[in-house]
Amino acid sequence: QAQLVESGGGLVRPGGSLRLSCLRSLDSYQMAWFRKTPDKEREYVAHILWSAGVRYYSDSVKGRFTISRDYAKNTMYLQMNNLKPEDTGVYYCNTNPPQNDYWGQGTQVTVSA
User: Would the pLDDT of 3 be above 90?
Assistant: First the structure.
């Protein structure tokens, strides 16, 4: 059964960093990170073309977040630097575009002093 498992969230102070991981057991040409914040419905954060490694970002995280993937481990990452309180939310990985069957539990990121 295809599955996505997110991990790596936590509590961090503004300006801090976290690295999220997404272990996948499915094949998809594109993989993405999404987040649900207290103020917004689930929103797109970044995506990567799995084979080519080409990366795309939302304007709100460009320059602060880096999406990457490890081919051998079938794992995607989201390196988040210079975190802001508005980055607080539950982060999910999914295919791009996302498929309802693949939403997992997500991982909570809280940015607070």
Answer: no
